[in-house]
Amino acid sequence: MSEELAKEIIDNFSNTGVSYTSKYRMYIQTPKEELFRLLEYLKDNGFKYLVMITCVDWINENEFELVYQVGNFNTPLRIIIQVRIPRNNPTYESIIPIFKNATDYEREIHELFGIVFDGNPKLTPLFLEDWQKFHPFKKDFDSREYVKVTFDSIPTLEEYK
Amino acid sequence: MINVTIVKVLEFIFYPFIAFVIGIILMGLFRKIMARIQRRYGPPLLQPLIDIIRFFSQRTVSHGKIFSFGVILALAGSLVVLLFIPFGKICPLCGSGDLLLILYLMLFTPISIALSGGEGANPNISIGVSRKLMLSLGYEVPFLMIILSVMSFYKTTSLVEIIKYQQNYHWAILNFPLVIPGIAYILILPAMMGVRPFDVASAPQEIASGPVVEYGGKFLGLNHIEHAIHMFIGIALFIDLFLGGGPNIGFFLVEMFIVFFIAVFINAMFPRYRVDQAIKYLWRWPSLLAFIGLVLVRIPVKF
Amino acid sequence: MNTETLLKSILIVSFGGAFLTYILGKISRVLREIFAVLTGIFVVVFSLMLYGKTGTFIYAKNFLGFSLLVSINNLSWLFLITLSVISFLSVVFSLTYIRGHERTDFYYLMLLLVNAGMAGVVLSADLISFYIFWEIMSWSTFLLISYNRGAALSAGMKYIIMSVVGSAAMMIGIISIYTTYGTLIISEISSQRLSLPPGYILFLFILFSIAFGIKNAFWPFHIWLPPAHSEAPSPFSAVLSGILIKMGTYGFLLIMYVIFGMKVFLELGSSFFSFHNILCWLGAITVVIPTFTALLQYDAKRLLAWHSIGQIGYIIIGISFGTSLSVAGGIFHFINHATFKALLFLTVGAVEYRTGGVRDLNSLGGLIKKMPITFIGALIGALGIIGVPLTNGFVSKWIIYKALILEGNSFLAFAALIGTWGTLLSFYKFLHNIFLGQLSEKYKNIKKAPFCMQFPIIIYSLIIILFGILPGIVLKVINTILISFGFESLNVTIWGIASESGILNTINIFTAIVIVVIAVWIISRLGAKTRLVAQDDNYAAGSYIPKEKYNFTAAFYKPMTRIIGPVLKDIINNFYLILGRGTSAVGNGIRKVYTGDIGYYVIYIILFLAVLILIKVGFKL
Amino acid sequence: MDRGQLSKWFKHPGIMAQKYSLWAVYFCTGCGIIEVPPSITSRWDAERFGVMPAPSPRHANLFMITGYVATKTLKAIIRTYELMPEPKYTVAFGSCPINGGMYWDSYNTIKHIDKYIPIDGWIAGCMPRPEAIFIGVTKLWMMIDKGAATGYKRYRENYEYYRKNQEKLFGKLPWPPLFPIEDKNEKLTV
Prior knowledge:
The complex is a heterotetramer.
Chain B: H1 2-37, H2 47-57, E1 61-62, H3 65-84, H4 99-105, H5 108-119, H6 123-154, H7 159-168, H8 176-193, H9 204-207, H10 217-242, H11 249-269, H12 275-298
Helix pairs in contact in B: 1-10, 1-11, 2-10, 3-5, 3-10, 5-6, 6-8, 6-12, 8-10, 8-12, 10-11
Chain C: H1 3-27, H2 29-49, E1 55-63, E2 66-72, H3 74-97, H4 104-123, H5 127-145, H6 151-181, H7 186-191, H8 198-216, H9 225-231, H10 234-244, H11 246-259, H12 261-267, H13 275-296, H14 300-321, H15 324-354, H16 372-386, H17 392-406, H18 410-435, H19 451-469, H20 472-485, E3 492-493, E4 496-497, H21 506-526, E5 531-532, H22 558-564, H23 571-593, H24 598-620
Antiparallel strand pairs in C: 1-2, 3-4
Helix pairs in contact in C: 1-2, 1-4, 2-3, 3-4, 3-10, 3-15, 3-19, 4-5, 5-6, 6-8, 6-9, 8-11, 9-10, 9-14, 10-15, 11-12, 11-14, 13-14, 13-18, 14-15, 14-17, 14-18, 15-16, 15-17, 15-19, 15-20, 16-18, 16-19, 17-18, 17-19
Chain D: H1 6-11, H2 13-20, E1 23-25, H3 36-40, E2 52-54, E3 62-66, H4 71-83, E4 89-93, H5 96-99, E5 121-123, H6 130-146, H7 151-157, H8 159-170
Helix pairs in contact in D: 2-6
């Protein structure tokens, strides 16, 4: 079942490749512009369930990779779509119109990677203590430096006296 | 004449202490038996007393005048009710009040705890108080029927006379029409004492112990003293009404501990009811028994 | 000032004062308020001077051939003093309450007219003047209920329809009494002990109990009361539920024990289905059903209105149970209910005045910090209506229960007793949702109630506590009334009743409570000093408390109302709705016949003549 | 365990009662809370020493910081600590609250908990077993006896310091300061 689906996707979507298909998994690489259409296409033939959205920081290619995973309730096949977006001041349109439950995934990625999803109403802090200053999951974030700045700078009682 | 007043004054002063000591022992036993049932060693018998002393040594906060005064009034309410309940021969104020008065004096404590809790402005307290009031409405329906059947059976409203009748003939629970209200009373006793299946009003897990959430040091101490005396009153009233009030104090204490053990074992076994489950239970079996008792007392059926 | 001039001057002052304030009101606001208060004071002073006096005097020679008399005895004195005090305090309360509204002089005219009508009803010695003052009272009540337009109009309409039906029933009763007794003067009627057939007496009793029952608003005739009380302006609903309902009680007492006498009333009907037994059971239903429907309300005044009906049930049980103890309890409860119900309505009025008309129990909260005096008033009122010892409500309820239990009638006693816990639940919700809990931002800067509003609240609270601790003051007067009714007197002492089976000694209870409270206060001083803290320093499971959202008021007794809610559907209300729809259908039918254009009427006349001729001719054949 | 010596009870009941009725705030701050249930149930019953979980911080006088403290939990810990009535003691479990432990370089855990709230006793072990908790409790008894468990006094005297640290970490705190910052003596009214 997954082979014909892969063939159809490759035919009618420009420069999208299917790197791996099996009974349970299918990996698709697609450019930024094609993602919306691809998701709608998959949702039409049964992939109604957005499992999760994650993000990978390719620092040396100076790119972020957004990974969308959609599932189908009556087949074990999971489709994983990888999209590359530029790393400096990254923005991308939100997929809430297609999958409503994407808000919190995008909110988390915004908080931890700093990618701004326009169209997402609630980009408020989720886990962290509303610090707009830094995005901890980016590779160039040095947490030891951050700890020295925020925590070690606070004096102990003896130093304070 | 003078030595009667002296005896009355002495009773007036020492009766609350006796009730407090018995109440503390009951609470201590409560925790000890619960521990032993759960196969653990359990605190010393006088642990509630240690807790109270610790509460009085802590400095806490108050949310306003009604908050502080309500706690004092709650304990005062319980003590005043205590003075009207005969305990064996001791009964300081029985001359100027009867069972109806005790029934209404028992309103003092829930109202003052509710008012002082309300001022504490915490939804946990409001939920706890609304549950306590609903539960009290739940067990008042059978309780009133039981008391009315006893009163109209003996054609008097004064508790002292009821005890005198029982001591002359035999316990109220033994002669026929009053057996049924007696059983109904045993069914609702856990609800009146706030024991496990019915401790929904002060549930520590759900509403952080309900009305007492904001009570800190001395307020919690006063609340624990009030709980001890309330336990004493609950059982003493049942004994006075149905088990003949005990000719002397020793017999009274024995009856008290037996009734108390029943309550503890019920507490150890049952999970906690929801409020509407508790009300449905209280309005089904105990109310039916109490109603049958009321009808039988009203229409003298001779067997 | 002998009694005759006193009685006449009460009527003149109250009626004259009403019209005077109306006229002066046109000139200036201050004059209107001064005169309104003056009429109130004068009526109170005059009724105080009438203590212990009796006598009947004629004040109008031949009004349609009858002479109208006015009389005073212990019973009417008791009602007079209560109604004058309550109306005076309501006038004082409405000085500031009504200042902002328009048509204020119309409001004062109507309020003083109601008071005058009530005074007239209580003082009248013959049935004609009784009926006239009754009508004045009903109509001015209707105009006052529909004072602030909108929903009040339909409430007033519902009230006036039912009270017109009641007055019609009373008029038929008065005419039939006149035909049998030949006279309309109450004292003469009660002195002729005619032996009338029981059926006829029952007919008279039913007529009068419909008239007084509707005004008294007990169970089957209660539907006008909740909308009327919640729509009327607060000072007037204090008068309405404090004393105006009690005119029905005065009427009941009049026909039960004065006009027909005690023996006739108690023997009416067979042993179980006797008239007074049915009335007792109606009273019992009136105690239970409205008290628990009050639990479901979330508008403060509607809750209080349903409780007025509930408390009337106690009075009805007391009066119609027939033993001296129960009648004493019933009369004492009427005075107590007048005090704490008026107090509760005034406190709601004060809250309404300060928060800009908000009465919804779900959106208030925390007003104790801003309006402490109003809170203390509402607290004492609530304790009174629940019947907590040391308040007057307790003594009267205790007397009624004792009477019921001594007769062994435990089912009635159970219905009455369970009403108390219904009142306890709904009045804790009333106090909690308005005064306790978190104060919301909207009411951060409201001020205390003005002095004109606090003065009546303080006076009522003192009366409740005073009568609670020393009930003997009122019980002595009631004892004289009982003797005048023909009951045997109770040995009443200053601290309560010392009957053989179970004594009530309020002074001992008071001293015991005071000593114990002082002792516990000393114990509480043992602990360390406490630190006063604001309302937001509260336990919220570790997080800081969410502003505006940390109050539990909306579904206060949800589990309970889910159980008793479906049971308490107002069947009586549906019955009246069906009745209303039926009458309007009949009306439409008749309108089809009288279409209004002449042609039809001519045809009807011709047809009718034809039928007559036919009958005449027909027989000939 | 001098609970039985009545003479001590009469000499200074406050201290003895503080020792033998330690109610712990039932607030699971970190991974150590998994050790508390076994210590209060039938195997190691803590209630025989008077240690009991308290339903609300107002009832408690012992606060156990069990395990590493996340930044967001610190806000709740400060709030609960301030709600507790005055003679109160805090005990920290394991090394993470001392200096961050194995999360020493993580951006969202607190390194030195005693910069924000005063700690009286430390129990070593990642995470201490119930026996270690009881030894800690007995050590706390000795400190209370000697009057060395004065965390709450330290908090009251240098409240300015603690408040400044807390605000440096969290910015503006929503709740007002517990003790007035200007003058040290708090206003006590009944």
